[in-house]
Task: inverse folding
């Protein structure tokens, strides 16, 4: 394993703990919004050749509005916000004078980026506002990371059968099963450590759901990168690639945890 990954983790974990545990919710919302903007920008760079262009700017603004809608309930009513975001993106292409031959694809990329990154990851803010929200955030990150780590090591040691050879040749079924077991084990470890409010059955099902969702999020981002012909979405984190590379699993596990919690115990 690249030692830079370890150094990055040693810096990130203490800062993340302090942010979630001790700073006010607005600080966490700003942290999430910043991460969303960076990840969304990396996503747009997979398609748009220029570092900054009007479609990218409009997409980032749309993502920011979606995130604000999560952070300040009632400020931007969701149906109205989504409606005007879609209309603005469509009109921007009509009025921009850009090449109409790429219009359909460009517009689809901008719209999809806002919802793929901002809408799905914005649920982090909703989780943080639940009862025991900060502890649930730790649960989410630890269970998701346990999946990635267990899948990597089990796949490296025992992997024989490719999971998705066209998208990600190194991922195996053995690694996926190891990751699933790692998620469930991490969920019970979190319950024993700091989240006793979860029942045994809730812990099992949430660990299982996150263990299934994490590799799917990873594979979806890998498919996007393979389509763009790149290995990493960026290089902002030493040894890890880009922000989007680090949150690809969280993009799926975050809404799964939120709606799983609501289904099990409506708040």
Result:
């Amino acid at each position: 394993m690249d030692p830079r990954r370890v150094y990055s983790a040693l810096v990130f974990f203490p800062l993340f703990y302090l942010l979630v545990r001790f700073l006010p919710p607005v600080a966490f919302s700003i942290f999430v919004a910043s991460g969303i903007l960076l990840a969304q920008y990396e996503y747009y760079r997979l398609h748009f050749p220029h570092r900054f262009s009007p479609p990218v700017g409009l997409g980032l603004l749309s993502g920011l509005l979606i995130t604000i809608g999560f952070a300040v309930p009632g400020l931007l009513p969701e149906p109205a916000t989504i409606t005007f975001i879609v209309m603005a993106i469509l009109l921007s292409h009509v009025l921009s004078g850009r090449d109409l031959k790429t219009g359909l694809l460009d517009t689809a990329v901008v719209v999809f980026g806002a919802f793929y990154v901002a809408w799905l990851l914005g649920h982090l803010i909703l989780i943080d506002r639940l009862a025991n929200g900060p502890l649930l955030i730790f649960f989410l990150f630890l269970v998701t990371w346990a999946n990635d780590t267990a899948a990597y090591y089990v796949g490296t040691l025992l992997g024989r059968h490719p999971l998705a050879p066209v998208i990600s040749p190194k991922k195996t079924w053995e690694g996926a099963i190891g990751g699933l077991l790692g998620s469930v084990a991490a969920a019970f470890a979190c319950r024993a450590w700091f989240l006793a409010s979860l029942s045994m059955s809730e812990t099992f099902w949430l660990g299982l759901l996150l263990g299934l969702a994490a590799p799917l999020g990873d594979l979806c981002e890998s498919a996007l990168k393979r389509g763009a012909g790149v290995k990493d979405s960026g290089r902002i984190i030493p040894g890890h690639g880009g922000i989007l590379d680090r949150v690809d699993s969280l993009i799926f596990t975050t809404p799964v945890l939120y709606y799983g919690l609501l289904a099990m115990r409506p708040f």
Q: What stands out?
A: Strands lie at 162-164, 168-172. The two ends are 41 Å apart (CA to CA).
